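Contributing new complexes? Match this layout with iron/sulfur cluster.
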Amino acid sequence: MHKTKECPLIRTLQSHSINIESQLMKYTYSSSTINAGSNAKTVKGDKEYVTAVMYLAPFTLSGFNVCAMAETAKCHEPCLNLSGRGKFTSIQNARIAKTQRFFKQRKQFMEDLHKDIQRFVNWCKKRDVKPAVRLNGTSDIRWEAFKHNDKNVFENFPEVQFYDYTKISNRKTKDIKNYHLTWSYSEADMKYAAKYKEALSQGMNVAVVFRSVDIIPKKFLGVTVIDGDKDDLRFLDKKNRVVSLYAKGPAKKDQSGFVIG
Ligand code: SF4
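Output block (do not edit by hand):
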């Protein structure tokens, strides 16, 4: 029987790509509501935690507004919704459908979300990592106000560390131990910008998007600045800090005041 000789270069490349694939598989969790592993930043920060993120259609893209302060903060155009996998039409359509389901079939949606979080918790246990969940990957919903079986999602999963960015400075989450919020700054409206004081008093840190790395100051608004691009695990940040991020995707061209510098 004739045997084809295997090329050593192809063999090396194949084993290299199998290694990369198995690394990615290790941290890839997907479900109809939350997903982990497709975002390189969360994978990079995942030494102890794996973060699963829910991506909805931001602002009014689905016909329902899920970002109450977006018009004021002018963040709907530079929104991260279109970066990474978000540039594909199929992903955009899936986010729109998911958001519409949240509004039109709330009970079923909440049931699915809770099942998916429970599966994610079990998935993390098997891999000996801690579960973290961001429900507002591309939305700004007050999850503390929604109940499932008489409890909000944070009460239903005390073992999960939830965290998000928000543009709503008066969210009443200070007493929720497993939900960490970072308020997002914008100078598109100076009344909005002044709310950073309220956000700090509610126990939130303040995230500021700078146009480039080289203009990030040591202090901003009189508050010590820390690097938010090292990882995405905001709940590990020290309190009373400004978290610096540098502009990515469409945000690089933003002139609204959302991006500083
Ligand atoms: S609030 Fe957040 S998710 Fe909503 S449009 Fe602004 S940046 Fe995007």
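Reviewers usually confirm one structural detail per submission. For this one: Residues 30-260 form one domain.
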